Queue: 4 jobs
Job 1
Amino acid sequence: MQPGPTNAITDVEGIRVGHAQRTDEGWLTGTTVVLAPPDGAVGGVDVRGGGPGTRETDVLDPRNLVERVHAVVLSGGSALGLAAADGVARALFDDGIGYPMGAPGEVVPIVPAAILFDLGRGGVFGNAPDAALGAQAYAAAHDSTALGCVGAGTGARAGGLRGGVGTASAVLPDGTTVGALVAVNAIGSCVDPATGELYSARFCLPGDLPTLGRPSPEELRVAREAATLTPGAHLATSIGVIATDRTLTKAQCSKVSGIGHDGLARAIRPVHTMFDGDTLFTLATAVRGAPDPFEFHALLEAAADCVTRAVARAMLAATSAAGIRSFRDAFPSALG
């Protein structure tokens, strides 16, 4: 297994990503759109956190009618940020993309969404992504490989450090491509408090990260203090999308999402807490044929690894803001 050409979810044929954010006075939040091909992609979801905020996840239940979704929206702003999906749905409708309902142009875009909590991190508690920001992210969608504090990761925090958006991909020996994009915003930490090392670093492939060492004891002490959880101080949630070019059923997509959470669990501790709404979606673009059971097993393994690697890349790309330091600024000695 090796990374795809750009080591991003957009290595999966037909997948595009758009980010939009606001960082002006009082704002530190944003929205990320993962676009399927115009005909949609088969979708699945798995919600593990105790405090989720989602839209149209029931449509992804394998027992229900609609097979394909046209976009997935990941947004800051807690429940207020679900409004960003309205802008994406309207933009898809205006482009004639959606579930066909009759005559040309009579479509209903299927746009599942999940949000993370970043309210107040820019200074004004009620500032959250809206439909206009969602439409802006849709308009910006392309073969994006952006990392760090962009889109849904703009106001992200993980433990006592800045979080952000990370992405990674893998090409399997049989040619299957798998990718993941994660907005890392967790109550738990991505850093081992005993050593200062990223939990996820050991699972990364060559080229994912710069060479990392252990930070100094003093840097580690300060970081531990910053990560202390105080009652009422934090809510969080890590959200993301996994994609593959294989042909999968809705049930298989849901299984991929579930295994993807194993990738989160390797990278964040604790994970799936009552203060996190951790949610992962899966999109299958069906460019390649259906896998046999052994190929599907390999796809599941790669999906979990891509999620773990995406978390690591998010943490290394994040930048300090709003009094929250990035991994790079907190542990400069780890980067030599």
Job 2
Amino acid sequence: MNIKPIGNRILVEPLKIEEKTFSGIILPGTGETKSSNMGVVVALGNIEVEIKLGDKVFFRPHSGVEIPDSDKKFLILEMEEVLAVIG
């Protein structure tokens, strides 16, 4: 993937979550995992905050623009949609 966000945006690869019971048993289903509102930063636009490549971030649910690429999914997020950096 060769995408460089412009302006005050970042490119994030959302982390997947598996459906589990409280005791840790993975529930059978469609075999797919759901996206969470947490992801890893894979590209940066022209931002002036302390976010680096590889940082894990929390973002608002249902935010960003989805960019599909073969078997992966990416999101372009405005910095206002990022809630926190997981450190």
Job 3
Amino acid sequence: MARIFITGSTDGLGRAAAEALLASGHEVVLHARSRQRASTVADLVSRSAGVAVGDLASADETRAVADQVNAIGRMDAIIHNAGIYLAPTRGATPEGHATTFAVNSLAPYILTALIARPDRLVYLSSGLHRGGAGSLRDLEWTRRPWNSAQAYAESKLHVAALANALARRWPRVLSNAVDPGWVRTKMGGAAAPVDLDTGQRTQSWLASSDDPAALVSGGYWHAMRQAEPADEVKDPAFHEALLQALADLTGVALPQDD
């Protein structure tokens, strides 16, 4: 039995993964954006090993989420599921960051750096990450007109690259990225071709399975199979530039292997 923390687990793919892992006998630590949000899933919370509360658009609240998770105990796996899609404006977080960038890129980085290192890390990316090239020139969207689809694509490139970078930097951790496909969630809409159970299956499997096929690192996965990501995802130079930028913007250093 594994203890698994899932961000954004009160709805959509995050909740579907939590339900599946609980049904398989695992301990699941949930994450909700607010206390009110957590209260809407009291049935799920009552079966969980705990719930961390905090808005990932805020760096301070993201740090608080990390503290809450660490107080529960060491996780065996973490699924970085939370994300924003097609935000209508750049927005501004309490720290002044673009909201999509803060939630989709900065928050997974902060949580990865501050939560006690698990055995497995899984990051939810998207096939749209292949359109995210060039993001390092203006991560914060301060020089370009806002483009919600482009911002989303760039953020999903960031987390796929983060997963691959950690596979190199932390060789004792299994770190992978997953494209769940176009899933029928509030985000994906009713016309999406992939059902929730199928959409959550790969990340739940990577987080918990002892199947030798799941005990790998540095992969980019879709529908239970490895796929070929954009070149930047496997580029050590891109990794280092991205990690340095994220460290500079957050003031949080990613630990080296120990």
Job 4
Amino acid sequence: MRQLSDVRVAVIGLGYVGLPLAVALGRRYPTIGFDIDPQRVDELRSGVDDTLEVSAEELQDAGQLSFASDPADLADANTYIVTVPTPIDRYKRPEMSALVAASRTIGSVIAPGDVVIYESTVYPGATEEVCVPVIEATSGLKLNEDFFAGYSPERINPGDKVHRLADIVKVTSGSSPEAGEFVDALYASIVTAGTHRASSLKVAEAAKVIENTQRDLNIALINELALIFERMGLDTEEVLQAAGTKWNFLPFRPGLVGGHCIGVDPYYLTFKAQEIGYHPEIILAGRRINDQMGEYVADRTMKLMTRAGINVVGSRILVLGLAFKENCPDIRNTKVVDLIRALASYNATVDVYDPWVASADACAEYGIATIAELQQGRYDAIVLAVAHREFVAMGADRIRALAKPEHVLFDIKHALPKESVTARL
């Protein structure tokens, strides 16, 4: 097994997960940050990270980090870490083409004694059932004879400047005891919070996928409570604050559940569960509840407009925020899109404003042309969908000034005082 002193790392995929990892490793080891997008690589070489996860100073501080988009540049590495996206397809099935492609690329350059570590979220067993066979078929090498594998699930929280890579305990695992020791030591050298070594790749894979499944179900419960309390005429936030006075009540809030993890990972687990003959009831029920929330908010907005005597057809509605979470440009699997499409289905004109999201990215990903400026006195309804700090700083009065005298202000995120809005989730 290799020693840390001999490590030369290649991080495959330089998104929200891969880039912070490459920077951390590049402070200690010769590291190649690899991405198939040459434009992304060029920007990083010039010190620019459009995900805003890493600053120019942090990039410069990683003195042993270089960037590449040519697979041939990976041949100098002996430790490969895969951090490519693992989304779902339109049928909510795992979409692992990027993972397979990365494995094939590694297989074309891997040498005996090398180690491949996966961080991408998958179902238990995927590393050994999907990824390793691709490497073996491409390279002609055999796992645990010629090369070794590891799995260490990513725990990056986009936009979070408090809980960063080094501050979050890292789960590690290996395909053999020696590989497990190596993988654990590698991450322990850059993660000050420490590591937790799992007994197998499958345990580490399962740990990751249930982290976000648990959060998804907790939020689904609160979303269902919000649906019930709305029919009872109760304010959900008031109820949650009262219940929260008990020490063991968990502080979850209702909302749109999107992003690259919580709204996706449960489907990886349910896919595998169904493949082995078990139909997961609770997990899928939670997903159904959370997936319908965008349409629910749109329907409720339209009812509020109708009650206020505002003609829905031909109305103009402003949605504040498109990113899947506040203070972050990440629009992967954002459920605000569901809200926008549901509002538009009522023959309303929907404007979308998000100071964190590049209009070109929104157009390329969802066909949504965001507006560049806000105009006063223009809207029949405003939906505050993402609690960016800019919107919170505006306050209710400045947000209401964007609307016509008779209007609806729906605050999904409870970012504004209750008495200043028409409704909140």
